[in-house]
Design brief:
131 residues, mainly beta, seven-stranded mixed sheet
Length: 131
């Protein structure tokens, strides 16, 4: 991790891959990740952790399957949302977005339970910013 300030715009400009987050820094045992997203991710669940989203640019939709039924939250630029642990969810960005996520280091992008992973989704625990 860098001991210098990191410009998120520069971090996002350093890669093109979609649904392939980069770790920009770490806070205690948590990764701060940025990602470019467009189209659909997959339905998945994080059994042991919440998942925090901040939309840096564009608009992100997150579909949720909750006890009361299915719903979708819409996150415009500047909005934050936390998906509670154990909640099945699917992020998607019809027109593309840039997001920041905050989650425990080592958390897989496809969660602990999911279906088949399509080629456009990177199943990772995050990549170093410079890779």
């Amino acid at each position: 991790m860098s001991n210098e300030p990191i410009l998120l715009s520069k971090a996002l400009a350093s890669f093109d891959a979609l649904w392939s987050p980069r770790i920009v820094t770490r806070v205690n045992d948590y990764d701060v990740r940025v990602a470019k997203v467009e189209g659909e991710h997959i339905w998945h669940i994080h059994d042991e952790t919440d998942e925090f989203f901040l939309v840096l640019d564009g608009e992100l939709h997150i579909s949720l399957r909750e006890p009361a039924g299915e719903r979708t939250v819409l996150l415009p630029k500047g909005a934050v949302f936390t998906v509670p642990r154990g909640t099945e969810h699917k992020p998607y960005a019809p027109s593309g977005a840039a997001i920041l996520m905050f989650e425990p280091a080592g958390t897989p992008t496809v969660g602990d339970r999911h279906g088949e992973i399509p080629d456009h989704v990177d199943a990772t625990i995050g990549h170093a910013l410079n890779s």
